[in-house]
Amino acid sequence: MTSPLLVHPQKPDAEGATHRITPQSANWTYVGFETYRLPAGAKLARRQQGREACLVLLSGHARITAGGQDFGRLGGRASPFEGSPWSVYVPAGAEWRVESDGCELAVCTSPAEGRLPARVIPPEDVGEETRGKGTNIRHVRNVLPVSAEAESLLVVEVITPGGHWSSYPPHKHDVNDPPRETALEETYYHRLQRPGGFAVQRVYTDDRSLDETLAVGDGDVVLVPRGYHPVGAPHGFDLYYLNVMAGPVRDWKFTMAPEHAWLGW
């Protein structure tokens, strides 16, 4: 039986959606996540009261307008593995429109009041860093980090080379006790650079009341409502994932699993 934490992509619906994850479908409070495959000429429009959005161009090009601003034709990646993305921040209550030139789009949402203006986030504004050492090395692209303006939304991309671990050592952020730890729901949207492969993600708590080990395919989403959530990429299959996080406090403070803390972050 498929785990409720593992969401497989669907065939594109009438709007091109391959994922529609809502707080209701995920049985939580904050994070929403959608993906679209939009052929050239396709159009998509939304206005969400009470929710801000980050539109991430996974690949291809699109003309995007948001909050009354026309940001022009954005994008250019052939795949999520090729450099940092173009993204657009959309405040709660503002309309956004996408006119596709052939693109893959991720729509990341969370609760907000609409206090900030719409803005484009170009690749040069995406902070890039490498974390870890040895087979724990992964490459991070901070699309909408804590240091960037948003009300509750956090968005990051990670490239994990084949044979490496990521989101490792195991860490959690499910207790709202800042500044020690902040409670953040999280989605992982996984992509594999080569077809036919898989990755592994474990989601577990200290008391093992939640303990799932998931075989992840290209395009799958893993829901992390609580607990530790390390990811492994088998040799030969580089892994991309897009993380969306949100909670009652917009900060990323985590606790490492005690038995792994000696490894360091």
TrEMBL record:
Keyword Isomerase on this protein? yes
As recorded in UniProt, its EC number(s) are: 5.3.1.30
UniProt xrefs under InterPro entries: Deoxy-glucuronate_isom_IolB, KduI/IolB_isomerase, RmlC-like_jellyroll, RmlC_Cupin_sf
GO terms for molecular function, please? 5-deoxy-D-glucuronate isomerase activity
- Supply the alphabetized keyword list: Isomerase
State the Pfam families in the record: KduI (PF04962)
What's the superkingdom here?
Bacteria
Would the keyword Isomerase turn up in this protein's UniProt record? yes
Protein name, per record:
5-deoxy-glucuronate isomerase
